Amino acid sequence: MLRSIAFAITLVVFIVLLAYATAVGALGPLPPPHLRRLAVCVLNTTYNPALLRLGFSADAPEGVTAVVWDYRGLDTVFETVVLYGAIIGTLALYRQVLKSEERRESHSSERAEALRGGLSTVVKVATAVIVIAIGAVGAATGLHGQLTPGGGFQAGSILAVIPVVLLVVFSRDFLIRSGVRYARMVLLRNVGLIGIGLTALGLAVVATLIGVRGFVLQNQPHDGSPIGYPKWVLDVPSGGSLLFFNVFEMLAVVAGFTIVFLVLSLREDAAREEIRGEERGC
Amino acid sequence: MDAEFMRVAYMIVVLSIYVNIGVSLYAALAKPNLVKKIIALTILGDSVNTFIILAGYKLWRPGLILQPPVLTTFSPSSEALKQFIERSVDPIPQALVLTAIVINLAVTVFLATIALHMYRHFGTVNMDEVGRVKRRAIREEMV
Q1: End-to-end alpha-carbon separation of chain B, Å?
Q2: pLDDT at B35 over 80
Q3: pLDDT for residue A109
Q4: Across-strand partners of A225?
Q5: I need a labelling partner for B60 at 20 to 30 A (CA). Which of A9, A48, A164, A272 fits?
Q6: Which CATH number is B33's domain given?
Q7: Calpha distance B139→A239 (Å, rounded)
Q8: Residue B33 above 60 pLDDT?
């Protein structure tokens, strides 16, 4: 009882303090009457052909993607590290049982047999159509990330819906028989992560080889460095390195999430096998 | 619809987000159920993200054109770019929130797996009960 009262009082004090701080202007005028100067600077240099000639533009029509992968690219690289830290942490618990379970499943049943499980035929057919649509939306989000709102992470998240839907509508068995295996997903994830690394280091390495200055996570040529990523792909702006980052991030995210879903959908008794013999705590 | 009305409406939304943050913090700290804690954490994260996005918007004033900031050509004139900046909101909070969402998701995935693991281990996701079981085990060991 005393605990609840203490919590309630703390809660009210917390909210009142926050509201008071905001009311007296601790966060500046809210909502701001004009754009902040930093925002104007970013918006002005995101896509500006006149400034690009002077070496002051990211050359990407989508401002947020440009901020994420160009203006503060290093931050996003470490964000990716955190994401994969969490996924690796998840895998560390169940990797062994996931592998052995997969070996058993891929030997035990035929593809036709795996197809028999799951929900009704109507749902399956509808899902088969929807999955293609989800794939198209995901790919468009990723490949157009430098032009319209979207980007690698969003595209990866959209595409990661596909294995979830397949898991529910068909079966885990079906997913594994279709080739969505642990080793392949890890390979795809590694391709994505190595791609992000190479794109980040690319210009610095090339610059060193040809004897000019270049920077890690550099996108377009600027004051200190004359080289940059290509500005156009076919007839649309590529955003320089942004297109590469988006595509590789998309691969890495979809593969990473698929592995997590495979772990979370493990058979209960197989998963319990993994913790057998551990201290039960009682 | 005038600017003062918009400011008051904005402040009400900000206050409701603060209440949301407070309640979800309470749930994350006080509720013994791990699943409820995870749900509270996601609500906390989403509330903070909404607040940051909201802080990036600007006050509407008479004469401000409410149209999406879209460049319609790949070689815009300086006038078009000026219009673009005039219509835009701050992109930096949005980029920040994008990062925060990813981190939030990573933490949630990890916590969900840990909670599942704990359930398999102890047969419950109630932290009070887990504590009781552990205490009993330690006492038995000492005896």
Answers
A1: 74
A2: yes
A3: 60
A4: A222
A5: A48
A6: 1.10.287.3510
A7: 63
A8: yes
CB contact under 8 A, A79 and B11: no
* CA atoms of B28 and A11, how far apart (whole Å): 12
Question: Across the interface, do A83 and B29 touch by the CB < 8 Å criterion?
Answer: no
Instruction: Evaluate whether residue B74 is within a structural domain.
Output: no
- Total domain count for chain B? 1
d(CA B107, CA B59): 34
pLDDT at A277: 65
The structure's pTM equals 0.90
A11: nearest CA partner in chain B: B22
Three-state DSSP string of chain B: CCHHHHHHHHHHHHHHHHHHHHHHHHHHHHCCEHHHHHHHHHHHHHHHHHHHHHHCCCCCCCCCCCCCCCCCCCCCCHHHHHHHHHHCCCHHHHHHHHHHHHHHHHHHHHHHHHHHHHHHHHCCCEHHHHHHHHHHHHHHHHC
Q: Nearest-CA distance from A258 to chain B in Å?
A: 12
Q: What is the DSSP secondary structure assignment for residue A70, as one 8-state letter?
A: I
pLDDT at A282: 42
CA atoms within 13 A on the CB side of A187: 6
Q: What is the dihedral of CA A209, A214, A215, A216, to 10 degrees?
A: -30
For A103, other C-beta atoms within 10 Å of its C-beta total 13
Q: How close are the terminal C-alpha atoms of chain A, in Å?
A: 30
Task: Give me the residues of chain A with pLDDT under 50, please.
Answer: 281-282
Contacts of A64 in chain B (CB under 8 A): 91, 94-95, 98
DSSP state of A198: H
Residue B17 has pLDDT above 60, yes or no: yes
pLDDT above 60: residue B9:
yes
What average pLDDT is seen over chain B?
A: 90
Stretch B29-48: mean pLDDT: 94
